[in-house]
TrEMBL record:
Taxonomic lineage: Bacteria, Bacillati, Actinomycetota, Actinomycetes, Micrococcales
Annotated InterPro entries: Acyl_CoA_acyltransferase, GNAT_dom
Organism for this UniProt entry: Agrococcus baldri
Domain N-acetyltransferase residues, every copy: 25-198, 195-367
A molecular function (GO) term: acyltransferase activity, transferring groups other than amino-acyl groups
Domain of life: Bacteria
Name recorded for this polypeptide: N-acetyltransferase domain-containing protein
Length: 367
């Protein structure tokens, strides 16, 4: 295996951050008091760019208040002479990263102030700050700086990323499955052996996190989530639409003997905790309904423990989710998938009637 040089060398962090002078804005770090301002700007940008979503103040508050976020050093807000927020720059890192240390850039410029070079300088600041964070992480791992763009975003954004040295690395598809107006029947999925479908509850929350970390270990770009991360963004979470599959009689001895069983799962098994083997956790993004023109349930995460693939656990959880959506009058089921998902998810979704509505691209610098 190729020996990596120290992360501090690979990150090539600048000693000082570049100033943002374009547009004659006044800059300061973000604070929780800025939730309404940031939400309004995010939605103004989303509307101008034709994005298929809108953000609520609760979602913004969760993002800014995450315990691991350092707004004082990892954010900037740019105000015009009238005190109106016109641009934002955020950089986020994640405490659970264990195989790749990551820093992601978020933010943008109000549509009325685009074209003056603000976006380019914001991105330069974000990339410089991301390099500083990776260098200071102390994690001798591969590094990644990333950001996202909707495929329908204005072309200048994509060109700006390319010009700054970011490369298109991964592609995602936003899929829709109608639930009304003659839509195909939701399949009945029979589970075998000791597998049992149950509604999501607090009692299986951490067991579901462990299942998710195992399910996504072989997915590009995925990193384990701490419990703090797992529960941090739930303002739109719909537990009444969410389901998990548990194994009532797992072969504990075989799982403990399997080298692929991670340490956290081992500890849970030894403690007699429930073993979640598949899951579908869903949200109600009501602010997006008018934008898309229909109501929907959104599947945030869906997966199956690697040792249980092929036993239809995730399919059963997803089918139960779709029934819950339909039972509450939702017109469609929606989810997002990595187009190169290694578990064959694309084929599964196609067989269930999901079709692509939107797409997005992850741009990265690999270190």
């Amino acid at each position: 295996m190729h020996q990596l040089s120290p992360i501090a060398e690979r990150a090539a962090a600048p000693a000082t951050l570049p100033e943002i002078t374009a547009g004659a804005l006044t800059w300061r770090p973000a604070a929780l008091d800025d939730v309404a301002r940031v939400t309004a700007l995010n939605n103004a940008m989303a509307e101008a760019d034709g994005a298929p979503y809108r953000e609520t103040e609760d979602e913004t508050r969760e993002e800014l208040a995450a315990p691991w976020r350092d707004l004082e050093h990892d954010s900037l807000l740019g105000f015009d002479a009238e005190g109106e927020l016109r641009a934002t720059a955020f950089v986020a890192t994640f405490p659970g990263d264990v195989t790749t240390v990551r820093a992601f850039a978020f933010g943008g410029v109000h549509p009325a102030r685009r074209g003056a070079g603000i976006g380019r300088e914001v991105l330069a600041w974000q990339l410089a700050r991301a390099r500083q964070l990776l260098a200071a992480s102390g994690k001798e791992l591969p590094g990644r700086i990333g950001t996202y763009a909707e495929d329908d975003d204005p072309a200048p954004r994509h060109r700006m990323y390319l010009h700054a040295g970011l490369e298109p690395r991964r592609y995602f598809s936003d899929l829709k499955r109608p639930l009304t107006d003659g839509a195909a029947a939701i399949p009945d999925v029979a589970l075998t052996g000791s597998l049992r479908l149950v509604p999501f509850s607090n009692e299986v929350d951490d067991a579901t996190r462990l299942a998710h970390n195992d399910a996504f270990r072989d997915h590009w770009g995925s990193q384990p989530q701490t419990m703090e991360q797992w529960t941090a963004s739930r303002s739109e979470f719909a537990p009444e639409w969410s389901f998990v599959v548990v194994d009532d009689e797992p072969d504990v001895a075989a799982l403990l003997a399997d080298e692929a069983t991670d340490a956290s799962t081992r500890a849970a098994l030894e403690a007699g905790a429930p073993l979640v083997v598949a899951y579908a956790l869903n949200s109600r993004y009501a602010a997006d309904f008018p934008v898309r023109g229909y109501s929907f349930g959104y599947t945030d995460v869906l997966g199956t423990r690697r040792a249980y693939r092929g036993r239809k656990g995730a399919l059963a959880a997803l089918a139960a989710s779709m029934r819950a959506f339909a039972g509450d009058g939702m017109e469609a089921a929606v989810l997002d998938v990595d187009t190169e998902n290694p578990s064959g998810a694309q084929g599964l979704y196609a067989s269930l009637g999901y079709t692509k509505e939107h797409g997005s691209t992850m741009y990265t610098i690999e270190l």
